[in-house]
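re: that chain from earlier
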Amino acid sequence: MKILNLYAGIGGNRKLWGDEHEITAVEYDPNIAAAYRHFWPNDELIVGDAHEYLLHNYSNFDFIWTSPPCQSHSQMRQYMGVTSGQVKPKYPDMKLYEEIIFLQANCKGLYIVENVKPYYEPLIRPTAILQRHPVWANFPIERIDLPSDNIEWGTVAGWQESTGFDLTGFDVDKRTVLRNCVSPILGLHILNAALGKTPKSEQMLFDMEAIR
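^ sequence. v structure.
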């Protein structure tokens, strides 16, 4: 299957996908892209604007995963940052809804748009809410019980252990990159749903061990 992985980060969502698929990843930050290339040397990696790449290439893929910038939608930023005066309020980045509407209207393959729980009522109702992630997709996704990723109070060391990514030596903001990292288990669960698979509980346990 040809997969497009947009706003790829270091590839947390694709960690358990294996190498049987033809994966193209798009990441804007060259330093983060370098880390992605290190972890996933077999993927085609494009350093550039994911939003523009989607517009011109959406029809070339069987499955599209897009995770547009989430900070301006975040409950944590609004309720813990803005209200306390630590950060200034900002306009929500509408790339999220542009991509949802675009894919709903034009995509003939499978797609999922992933983001964080917003501080406002979503303008388009999500297909599902998985852990802390509302998702918009054109295929059904069952709920999955995952432990908290401790995103509010975790540490770099803890996130590296839970995700299985060691960012030692990479010139990236480790805290931000790891906080933005989708759980590999959740990434596999969503891909399996797109493929029409429902992994057995014992397989999920195996996959959780495979992260480490």
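The two ends are 26 Å apart (CA to CA).
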